[in-house]
Amino acid sequence: MGHPLTDGECEALAEEFKPHFFLAKGEQFLPSSVEEYLENSELLDRGKVIESPATVDGLVACCTDADKTSGVPSRNQGVYLRCKPEFHFGVPPARLDSVPVYVRYRFAEVRGDAVLAVTYIMFFPYNGAYNVLGWLMGGHEADWEHVTVHLHQAAGSGGWGLHSMWFHAHRERDGALCRRWETRGGRPVVYVARNGHGTYKRAGVVYRIFGVANDQCSAGRLWQAPLVFLPGCLRLDGVPAALRWVLFPGDWGTSFDKGGHCSPVEAKRRKQVTSPGGCPPGPALQSWWVHEPCRSRHWFRRVFLPSSR
Q1: Could you tell me which residues are beta bridge partners of residue 124?
Q2: Could you say which of 31, 109, 159, 236 is the most buried, measured as most Cβ atoms within 10 Å of its Cβ?
Q3: Residue 270 and residue 273: Cα distance in Å, rounded?
Q4: Residue 48 contacts by C-beta under 8 Å, 6 or more apart in sequence?
Q5: Radius of gyration (Cα) for the chain, nearest Å?
Q6: pLDDT value at position 275?
Q7: CA 111 to CA 105: how far, in whole Å?
Q8: For 178-209, what is each residue's pLDDT tens digit?
């Protein structure tokens, strides 16, 4: 598929159709920039601290020479970041609108139509745990969430407009391709679930996993984020120095032992040991970076067959 637009035109469209991001009422774990997260984290290699605080140069040093030149980063689960528990809550609410949303755009095909797929990527230092029958489960550091807006040229008009949206919720299998959603001022509205940060098209309760790990969405704080554009080329010489963190091959955080987990404050009080694994890699190492299924999953599967495709 050809690229009919320049980078400048793509970025202008991304700004024009940037969603209104509503964090839920009662949200405990606010987002942060990658830079501030690194300032509050240490870099480890197989349990040994090799840099504190972590830096972009330190992250790049974990890449192999092949990763730096191929443009296709590979995973290295021996290296990982560990965040200070007190930073799990992200930035203070007064600084919310200074936290960026990261953007990746590409040309794709959705339901047979050529579209410009603009992915808005959010980063949260912590994914809050779910209270499952009295057990706190699913808490982990480094929560990458996103939503993708598909733009197309309306027939005969030459102008660009909204075609569809992909709402990503925790796992690719739980995403939803939508042709209808709420808008304000011509821009889509995205509801970010409380503490878990999945993205949805409407407010309310989203039932998941036998009804015990539900997401709660509401129009709480409006996050008016500036956009930071990530490069399409992932060769080291094609990535601006400040954004080379996107090449990091390891986990972006740690998960509390035995799956679950207490709150960050409680973890600090208990001095509970954390371990690598169970945390997501950076966006460039996730499958949705290059391809999204754009196929909605029936609610019955999401609730009663959570492990099925």
Answers
A1: 143
A2: 31
A3: 9
A4: none
A5: 19
A6: 46
A7: 18
A8: 999 999 999 999 999 999 999 999 999 988 77
User: What tokens appear for 39 in the block?
Assistant: 């300032």
Calpha distance 46→242 (Å, rounded): 26
Q: How confident is the model at residue 274 (pLDDT cuts 50, 70, 90)?
A: very low
State both tokens at 128: 């809050």
Nearest to 153 by CA among 115, 190, 97: 115
Cβ neighbourhood burial of 149 (10 Å; 0-12, 13-18, 19+): buried
DSSP annotation string for 220-287: --EE-PPEEEPPS--SGGGS-GGGGGGG--SBSS-EEGGG----HHHHHHHT--EES-SS-B-GGGSG
Say whether pTM exceeds 0.70: yes
Contact 224, 210 (CB under 8 A): no
- Measuring CA to CA, how many Å separate 11 from each of 54, 71, 90, 103, 184? 30, 22, 27, 9, 20
What CA–CA distance (Å, rounded) separates 302 from 176?
11
